[in-house]
């Protein structure tokens, strides 16, 4: 007589999977003290990893130790990404977000440092994904979510990210190929001097490619500075979706929506 198939294994396995998914959703999206502490630990680890990415060009000289740390960080990021995908209501939606693909690019560059060493400068993009994630603002910046503080922080983060991504690119491409770039500090100096359009001229990149890169750095740098200035100086707005046209930002004392004229009932925080 043939043995009957085990009908209990799969339901139990599925139940454990649902419990794990619910646990991850609770930790990544919940508002309890336990969930907040968990996300705070994730943010602190992220900041430590970002600090490692910034100094990585210097640490590469440590040889084997650098690669050990590199793979440990790759394992941490892989676990974090798997947990975030699990916590998402629909994993397909997670893959539709550009910020998710940036995290995947960072992970790939960590998993294959010997083959993708020229893409190592992209790792600092983790700072951009962190400051533009809901996890960060629901954990560290709960009081400042949808405020000017968030706008300024994101603008500063964009500027810092661009500086170090460009520095890493210049260091990777021109180190040893151009006499002006003898180390990471030289690459950082060139980036900042070009970004601010100071143009001392003591370090210039050779060829048409170097000139085009300098032009791109200046144009993007000016745009980022303008964005930062707007965040600091323009009148403060309050986030309150219009019930008719869904316009998100309004003046603090707005009575009517600028777009459609609907009467608003913006709560008075004071």
Automatic annotation (TrEMBL):
Lipoprotein among keywords: no
InterPro entries: K_chnl_dom (IPR013099), K_chnl_Slo-like (IPR047871), K_chnl_volt-dep_EAG/ELK/ERG (IPR003938), Volt_channel_dom_sf (IPR027359)
Keyword Transmembrane helix: yes
Keywords of this entry: Ion channel, Ion transport, Membrane, Potassium, Potassium channel, Potassium transport, Transmembrane, Transmembrane helix, Transport
Intracellular or extracellular location(s): Membrane
Membrane topology, record value: Multi-pass membrane protein
Top-rank lineage group of the source organism: Bacteria
Name under which the protein is recorded: Potassium channel family protein
Lineage: Bacteria, Pseudomonadati, Pseudomonadota, Alphaproteobacteria, Caulobacterales
């Amino acid at each position: 007589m043939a043995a009957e198939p085990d009908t209990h294994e799969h339901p139990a396995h599925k139940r454990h999977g649902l419990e794990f998914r619910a646990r991850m959703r609770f930790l990544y999206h919940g508002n309890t003290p336990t969930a907040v502490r968990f996300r705070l630990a994730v943010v602190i680890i992220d900041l430590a990893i970002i600090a490692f990415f910034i100094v990585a060009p210097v640490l590469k000289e440590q040889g084997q130790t650098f690669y050990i740390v590199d793979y440990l960080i790759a394992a941490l990021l892989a676990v974090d990404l798997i947990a975030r995908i699990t916590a998402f209501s629909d994993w397909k939606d997670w893959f539709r977000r550009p910020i998710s693909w940036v995290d995947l690019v960072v992970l790939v560059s960590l998993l294959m440092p010997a083959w993708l060493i020229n893409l190592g400068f992209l790792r600092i993009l983790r700072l951009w994904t962190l400051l533009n994630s809901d996890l960060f603002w629901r954990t560290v910046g709960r009081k400042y979510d949808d405020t000017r503080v968030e706008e300024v922080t994101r603008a500063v983060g964009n500027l810092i990210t661009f500086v170090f991504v460009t520095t890493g690119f210049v260091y990777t491409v021109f180190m040893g190929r151009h006499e002006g770039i003898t180390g990471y500090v030289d690459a950082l100096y060139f980036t900042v001097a070009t970004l601010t359009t100071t143009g001392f001229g003591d370090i210039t990149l050779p060829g048409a490619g170097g000139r085009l890169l300098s032009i791109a750095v200046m144009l993007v740098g000016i745009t980022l500075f303008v964005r930062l200035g707007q965040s600091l100086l323009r009148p403060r707005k309050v986030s309150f979706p219009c019930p008719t046209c869904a316009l998100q930002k309004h003046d603090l004392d707005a009575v009517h929506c600028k777009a459609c004229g609907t009467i608003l009932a913006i709560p008075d925080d004071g």
